[in-house]
Amino acid sequence: MTGRTWLRHLAFLLPAAVAVLALTYLLPPFRTYQLATVGAYLCVTAGLTVLTGLNGQLSLGHGALMATGAYTLALTQNALAGRGQWTLLVSTAAAVVVTTAVGAVIGCAAARLRGPYLAGLTLAVAVVVPSVTSTFESVFNSDQGLSVALDPPPLALGATFPYERWQAWLSWAGALLTLFLLANLVRGRFGRNLRAVRDDEAAARLAGISVARTQVSAFVVSAACAGLGGALFAVLAQSVSPGAFPLTLSLFLLMAVVIGGLGSLTGAVCGAVLLVALPAATHSLTDAVHVSPAVAQRLEGNLPLAVFGVVLIVVMLALPGGLASLGRTLRRERPDP
After folding, report:
1. Chain mean position to CA 13
2. How far apart are CA 250 and CA 253, in angstroms?
């Protein structure tokens, strides 16, 4: 990887940062909060697309890794409450480090497994997290969860600075940094090793690539991204609880990166947008349909998953490469002049 690669990615990063900054001033508070949520999801989908799309490891437990980052931030932030804005940076770093360590443990086990066995392992991780919060109730407060002690925006921004705008800035700072680092990482030797292991493990071994080390490294990188995303979610919600990270969250994350385009960071952006836009659309649809409260509650829980499934089928039939391949498909089908 050359310095020119870093500069090219930086040239994409700066306009994106300016665009996000402008949107936070143009959008109303609720839409700004949704924009912040997209940024938090983007950290996770970007890491997951590296793991699943570039390295071929299927994970159904990234919701649990997000929960690890969220709870770590909540515990650290509450312990450091009232000491200034710098504590949020320390708490976020702690969330990333702890989740990375958990990801390394899972990755070491995952390197020995393939296919449904790997999916089963990560699924078990997603199921275990709620029971951990119940077992250590004095630490995690069981189903009630923990509130997160956060300071208001810096006074230098003004006494009336909107908190949603500050959340969006924090969220997208993490998201853009994640994209920048991953884009440079996958363009180098590490990315080539990931693709080689995904395509043919035997050939990768013959080329001198350590398959197990590459797979564990991919899981570690993806876990770090999930930990950052979970920490940002804790900042956005200002609380954490097991109900915020259900098993369906892991399914949504996986479907989002598949719909967006596996192995593409552009696809990760599309997937993050879908994770916010589709549930919001189904919620509006549920409100528009006049049904009984019991039916509305049932639709509220199941309709988003059904809509994601339908969108997944349609996109896979029309665009096997995901939404990120739409531009290439249109260029290929455009008739020559």
Report:
1. 18
2. 5
What values do phi and psi take at 42, rounded to 5?
-60, -35
CB atoms within 10 A of CB 169: 19
Please say whether the beta carbons of 66 and 138 come within 8 A. no
Q: Does the CA dihedral 12-198-51-318 come out positive or negative? A: positive
The residue ranges of every structural domain in the chain are 3-244
What are phi and psi for residue 25, nearest 5 degrees?
Answer: -90, -20
pLDDT value, residue 129: 78
Give the pLDDT confidence score for residue 300 in this predicted structure.
Answer: 66
pLDDT at 3: 61
This prediction's pTM? 0.91
pLDDT in the model for residue 298:
67
One-letter amino acid at 106 equals: I
Condensed to tens digits (0 to 9), the pLDDT of residues 322-334 reads 888 876 665 565 5
Q: Residue 257: its pLDDT value, please?
A: 92
Amino acid (1-letter code) at residue 87: T
Which has the closest alpha carbon to 175: 7, 47, 308, 267? 47
* Residue 245 CA, distance from chain mean position: 12
- CA angle centred on 211, ends 210 and 217, rounded to 5°: 90
Q: Are 21 and 156 in contact (CB under 8 A)?
A: no
Q: How far apart are the C-alpha atoms of 143 and 152, rounded to whole Å?
A: 27
C-alpha dihedral, 96 to 99 to 103 to 105, nearest 10°: 120
Residues lower than pLDDT 70 in the chain:
1-3, 287-301, 327-337
Spatial contact of 145 and 242, defined as CB atoms under 8 Å apart: yes
Classified as helix, coil or strand, 94 is helix
